[in-house]
Every structure is written in C-alpha cells, then in structure tokens.
Amino acid sequence: MTIQPAKLSEPAVRAFVNAVNSHDRDGFMSLLTPGATMSDDGQDRDLAEWIDQEIFSSHGHLDVDNESDGGRALLAHYRNDTWGEMRTRWRFEIDDEGRISRFETGQA
Prior knowledge:
Helix content: 25-40%
Distance between the termini: 17 Å
Number of helices: 3
Low-confidence stretches: none
Order of helices and strands: HHEEHEEEE
Shape: globular
Strand content: 35-45%
Number of strands: 6
Radius of gyration: 12 Å
Strand order of the largest sheet: 2-1-6-5-4-3
C-alpha cells in the first residue's frame, strides 16, 4: 500500500514527490539549493542532465511505499518511459531553509 504524497512527513520531500509526479520542472528546481548534488546507484551524476533524462523527458513517477528518518528516506516504486518500474530507495539532505541540498537514489 502506498503513502499518498500529502501524507509524507518532510515538507521538502513531499514537494519533491509532488513535483516529480506532476512533471513540474520549475517547481522541482525551486526545491533545490544552488549547487545541489545527487547520486544514482552510488555514483554522483550531473543533476541537470539526470533529472532531464530520468524524470522530465521520460515521465517519471514515484509511488512511495515507506518513509523513515523523519521523512528524509523513502522506499518507492519509481517508473519512467525509459526503464519501466523498479523498487528504489531515496535519501534527502535538507538545509536549514528547508531546501534539498542533495538526494541519493538507486535500486532497492
């Protein structure tokens, strides 16, 4: 059973999931700090390139199964037009202003 995005504990993560699922690139970018970073399966990636390929040009969508660490860690089913659906993990670092400075994802 999935957790509805509105029920996610951490506001920045809730907004992240909503931006991904509504394909709101501008809203997504507004959640990130300048110089935000990310990794996929343990490898640092170019953030702008990765989000364009893995989220926005391929219609990414997150269905959250579980959250932990105060809502800063998720287990979710992620799907896009390129890779189909897979079980994934997500971890977020959030600054004092409530913006995401780093996220890490990968297959769970």
